[in-house]
Amino acid sequence: MIALISMIYGSFYFLFFKKLKLFAESVRNISIFVGFGVVLVGAIVYAWWTFAPTTVDGRVFQYVIPIVPNVKGQVVEIPIEGTQIVQKGDVLFKIDPTPYQFQVDQLQASIDQAEAQKILAEIEVKRATGLVRSSAGSQSQLDQWNAQLASSEATIASLSAQLANAQWQLDETVVRAPFEGHVFNLQIRPGSYVTTMPVASSVSFVSNEIRTVLASFSQSAIRYIHVGDAVEMVFRSIPGRVFAGKIKRITRASGSTQLSASGQLPTFTGQPENSRWGVIIEFDDSPEVESMPQSSGASIIAVYTDRGKPVHVISKVVMRMNAWTGYLTSP
Fold first, then answer.
1. What is the spatial distance between Cα 181 and Cα 88, in angstroms, rounded to a whole number?
2. What's the half-sphere exposure (Cβ side, CA atoms, 13 Å) at 191?
3. Residue 314: which residues within 8 A CB-CB, separation 6 or more?
4. b/e map 216-243, b = 16+ CB within 10 Å
5. What residue ranges in 140-211 does DSSP mark as E strands?
6. CB atoms within 10 A of CB 27
7. DSSP letters along 7-19, please?
8. CB 182 within 8 A of CB 206
9. Dihedral, 214, 322, 226, 256 alpha carbons, nearest 10
10. Residue ranges per domain, the chain?
11. CATH T-level fold of 52-62+210-254+275-331
C-alpha cells in the first residue's frame, strides 16, 4: 500500500512537470517535490498505522473443553464419529454400567430391608404402647422399640442418600455433550479405560458456544484502540469476503513480564520490551460465521479507531485488495 501511495504521488510529477508544465524541471523544483512527497507520504503512513492499525496475527477462537467423566470404567459404546456435529445433551460415549448398577441394586435391597424393620418397629411400638396403658407391659420395652424405630428411620435416610449418589454415578456412565459442537481427535474406542483424573481427559470437545477472534497488536498500535471500535477481518478460508466486528476486550499484558515465586532472581538482558498485546473481537451477525472452523486464520485484520477517520479509507482499500487476492493459494 505504501508503494501504491508513492506511485499516486509520483503521478503528480508527470501532471505538474510534463503535462501542465506548471513547474520547470530544475534541480531545486524536483528536490522540493521529492522532499514534500517524502514528508506527505510519511505523514499519511504514520496516521494510517496509528489510527487504523492492521495485523496479520488473528485466528478464530472457540472453547475447547476437556471431557473428563465423573466416573471411571471401561468404554462400551461410542455412538459418534470424530468432527461430527452434536447437540447439547447428545451421547458422546458410554461407560460400562454394571458395577454401578450393582451398587444401586444393593442399596435398594438394603433400604427394603430397613423398611421392613421399620414396619416391625412401628407394630411393636403400637403394641407396647397399648400394654403400657393397660399396665400389662413395661415402659422400658416401649422405649426399646421407639429407639429401634428411630434407628430404622435413620438407616433409611442414610441409605437413601447413598442410593441417590449411586444412582447419580450410574447416570454419569453416559457422558453427554456439554454444548453444541464436535469432538476433535476422537481416539477412544470400546474397551478403552477412562478415569476421573482431569489431567487424563478422554476427549477434547470443541464448543460452538461462541466464535470470537483473538488477535494481537504491537504496543504502539494498540494505544488508540478502545472497546467498541469497529473491525474488519479477512480470512484465508473464505476469500472475497470482508467480515465486520467490534472490539470486545483488550488485554494490555503479556507473559514475557510475568514473575513466578521462586528463589531465582530475574535476569535482565537490556533488550527492549516488544511483546504484543491481545484483543478479543466479536463478530457482527453473519450466517457464514457459524460454519467457520476453530483456528481459522485471518490474513489481515483492521481496527478503525475514533481518530483519523480520513485515513480509514486506506485500510478499507487494503482489506478489499487482500480479500480478492485470497483466491490465490498460499503455501
1. 8
2. 1
3. 1, 5, 44, 48, 52
4. bbeeebbebbeeebebbbbbeebbeebb
5. 174-176, 181-184, 193-194, 203-207
6. 7
7. HHHHHHHIIIIII
8. yes
9. 50
10. 1-49, 52-62+210-254+275-331, 72-207
11. Elongation Factor Tu (Ef-tu); domain 3 (2.40.30)
Smallest CA-to-CA distance from 234 within 262, 215, 255 is with 215
pLDDT band at 126 (very low <50, low <70, confident <90, very high): confident
Model pLDDT for residues 170-208, shown as the tens digit of each residue: 999 999 999 999 898 888 999 999 998 887 788 889 988
Domain 72-207 coded CATH 1.10.8 = no
- For residue 215, give the C-alpha cell: 488477535
Q: 186: which DSSP letter?
A: -
C-alpha 2 chain-centroid distance: 37
pLDDT tens digit string along 60-94?
988 888 999 999 999 999 999 888 889 999 999 99
Please give the Cα distance from 120 to 142 (Å, whole number). 13
**Reported pTM:** 0.71
d(CA 279, CA 282): 10
C-alpha cell at 246: 467490534
Q: Is 167 helix (H, G, I), strand (E, B) or coil?
A: helix
